[in-house]
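Request: Mind sharing a record?
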Amino acid sequence: MMVEVQEGDPRRRWLTRNVRILSAVSFLQDVASDLLYPLLPIYLTSVLGAPAAIVGAVEGAAEGAASLTKLAAGPLGDRFARRPLIATGYSMAALGKLIVAAATGWPGVLAGRVVDRLGKGIRDAPRDTLLVEGIDDAARGRVFGFHRAMDTAGAVVGPLLGLAGYELLDHQIAPLLWVAVVPAVLSVALVFLVRETRRVVPTQRRAIFARVRDLPGGYWRVTAVLVAFGIVNFPDALLLLRLNEIGFSVVEVILAYVGYNLVYAMSSYPAGLLADRIPRPAVFGIGLVFFAVGYIGLGLTTDTVTAWVLIGVYGLFTGCTDGVAKAWISSLVGSDLQGSAQGVFQGASGFAILIAGVWAGLLWGTDGSLPLLVSGVVGAVFAVLLLVAAPRYRHGTTTSTSSRA
């Protein structure tokens, strides 16, 4: 059986055993990942002697691998047991961090990052499917909001641990790479406490990937809109670069990244709760208003105090959109297609962000503010479209019925 049905306060019935455990798993994994994230570019360039272009190549290859794997892992999660896929994904992430720690040159870091992100691609869609297994659509916003809050809390703790270790170890980065392996391994151990309902699935070979063709038209329309927005939502590394251009020191950039994640973590659950009470396109549209303000503001300002405020505004954008988008997607299909729906959406979104990184990076060489202004204006247009369309949206009622029903 899956998790116990909680009794008592009906507001807590969504907080199942799986939601708690998988949220703790994500917290530990993000502590490990974000302990490294702000320091890895410095390690590659200053310690291993790699040129700056290698930093972009490493992250581009890693994220591309994750996006490609998500497209396959989602349908696999609808065909096979999900917990083994989740365990495999987190195990690969831990192995990737071990490879990075042991690397003596940038090719080793590249290999480690690719293995790490391949693991992310394998685990994410099956995990998100298991998070809402047996949970009514009316509570899925708070499920994903709680999970994103826990996940992002790790992104607050991780950089702070990295910064403290960086100072305590006299700016030695290599030992910190080994420290990051510990919470990554602990996250793998927790996965084995997850429970999964035994399912009856089709035995035909075509049922694995042919299920993508069963996704309904409404799902494809929403996915197309969200992925189209992703083309102007470039990687956060460029925002951190903008802060450096404005005048932030390396330590201040790391602290700004922590501040962004703190706002993101604190706003994720309230946004998810709101998305269970009003149309989800409206909450996502509100998030895009924050996106437009943050991007346009960072594109125009040269004042560090204003930039601190704007990076917090950007955190509100992520809090209002990340978990809400997953809840929105989950409401558009039945339980038999949850993995396929999340995998295709998340994989396509990853490729969109890669495209955004390419065009924004090319424009950055001309004027660092220009990509921010372009994206901010386009984001404002998307915000208006979603807020206008929101009154026509109604929450789905999918729980365990087929999407064909």
